[in-house]
Amino acid sequence: MMMAKKLLALLLCVLTLLTGVCPLSSSKRFVKAGEMVVLQCPQDTLNHHGDTELIWTRYTTQEMFVANNTASLEQWNMDVLVYGRSLVILSASVTHQGNYSCSLGNASNQHWFTLTVYSKQSRKYNEKIEDLTTCYTQEFCKLKCPHIKIPHITSNGITWFKEGESLPKEGYFSSVEKSDSGVYTCTRAYLYQGQIYNITLRVKLDVKSKGQSVIISPHNGDVFYVDLGSTLVIDCKAVMYTDFDEIFWLSNTSFVETNDSLPVFYNSTWEGNPDHIKMTASLIFKKVSEEDLLKCYTCKLESASEFPRFATITLSQKSHPVSLTPTLSIVGILVVIAVTVIVCVKFKIDIASFLRDTLGFRRGDSDGKCYDTFLMH
Ligand SMILES: *[C@@H]1O[C@H](CO)[C@@H](O)[C@H](O)[C@H]1NC(C)=O
Ligand SMILES: *[C@@H]1O[C@H](CO)[C@@H](O)[C@H](O)[C@H]1NC(C)=O
Ligand SMILES: *[C@@H]1O[C@H](CO)[C@@H](O)[C@H](O)[C@H]1NC(C)=O
Ligand SMILES: *[C@@H]1O[C@H](CO)[C@@H](O)[C@H](O)[C@H]1NC(C)=O
Ligand SMILES: *[C@@H]1O[C@H](CO)[C@@H](O)[C@H](O)[C@H]1NC(C)=O
Ligand SMILES: *[C@@H]1O[C@H](CO)[C@@H](O)[C@H](O)[C@H]1NC(C)=O
Ligand SMILES: *[C@@H]1O[C@H](CO)[C@@H](O)[C@H](O)[C@H]1NC(C)=O
């Protein structure tokens, strides 16, 4: 049904283009008694003739009033002004209720307004939502009160209320929460001839929570195998959702510096995306030393909105096969094979249980000492 109506409207507009005769376009307005109303005649781009005058017509059940300027509005016998393309009702009352139209010249191109005025106490009053603002939790958030520009009438400030609450609000939040979501009303005050007139508009605030910042790599407990004296770079990669989050490196419990003249330092890069930031903090060892192997390294993600997250890693020296001259090594290998075969055959069971005991024992012992220490800080 809606679709059919839209198609019809479209068809009529195409017709307009062809014939220059525009069908009725219309809008509905609902306001509370006492509010100021501004009916703005849509800008006509199709057939604008500079010399033709804007004519307002008001229809009541008994009569039709036509006005082509503010002076001629006097016959309407109401507090109504015309400025440019706007018809302004300073303080709406039930008598203003009805149909209005504006047209350029004589009736070729009309726009209709149906105005409904509710009493101040009416619960039926349900003006449409003018604007939607989306903000993210823990961030600065500003509500937008749609601007209505009326020539010769001075804007005189905005008052905010949240629907269902009686105390005025500020139009912004330094750190917005999910509970701040909802419908707000903004009342724009206008000063005209020493009197204040109000226009109240409804806007909706939707507060969403962003994804949680995380460290992608390395994983807590990772061990990096290195050669002493070599250069080592360990990238800590994180995905973050606010500018306030950051990652940095700790060595045991002290901060690693970013000064690249030090033997161990880190540097970082950012990559901004529409909804998240990728940050990489590279821990750089110019020459891995014995001392470096004794420390724990922690990449820490510090976030304004969440608990800090971290990944602690350790370094371990790579094991190398002992290098021997080729002939010696061949002889050595043969001897080792021979001895192994003999020993294996002779002490099969003893070796099996020895291996199980020692390896099994060592595994259980070497877990997580570093991060336990770190966690306590
Ligand atoms: C405005 O309307 C009055 C009658 O209401 C008419 O005499 C006058 O010529 C009109 N002015 C123009 C510019 O059309
Ligand atoms: C306004 O127009 C609507 C249809 O567009 C009509 O039903 C209604 O009776 C009109 N009201 C007045 C007061 O003329
Ligand atoms: C529109 O203008 C034409 C002449 O320009 C006139 O004959 C006609 O009566 C006018 N119609 C209305 C509704 O005023
Ligand atoms: C205009 O709005 C303000 C703030 O909401 C209110 O105090 C004042 O009474 C209103 N004035 C009128 C004329 O409605
Ligand atoms: C970096 O470290 C070197 C050596 O410790 C020092 O001389 C220099 O002042 C430091 N630079 C900065 C910017 O801290
Ligand atoms: C980080 O420092 C290393 C070593 O000085 C350098 O090669 C690399 O380009 C630096 N990266 C950034 C992003 O500055
Ligand atoms: C760093 O922590 C480890 C494990 O807690 C400890 O063995 C080592 O001595 C510490 N090193 C330094 C320089 O504090």
TrEMBL record:
Query: Membrane spanning segments where?
Result: 328-347
Instruction: Give the signal peptide, or none.
Output: 1-23
Q: Per UniProt, what is one GO molecular function of this protein?
A: interleukin-1 receptor activity
Keywords assigned by UniProt, alphabetized: Disulfide bond, Glycoprotein, Immunoglobulin domain, Membrane, Repeat, Signal, Transmembrane, Transmembrane helix
**Coiled-coil segments:** none
Membrane among keywords:
yes
- Which residues are in the Ig-like domain? 23-116, 134-187
Q: Which PANTHER family match?
A: INTERLEUKIN-1 RECEPTOR FAMILY MEMBER, INTERLEUKIN-18 RECEPTOR 1
Stated family: Belongs to the interleukin-1 receptor family.
Q: What is this protein called?
A: Ig-like domain-containing protein
Q: Which organism does this record belong to?
A: Mastacembelus armatus (zig-zag eel)
Q: What is the lineage of its organism?
A: Eukaryota, Metazoa, Chordata, Craniata, Vertebrata
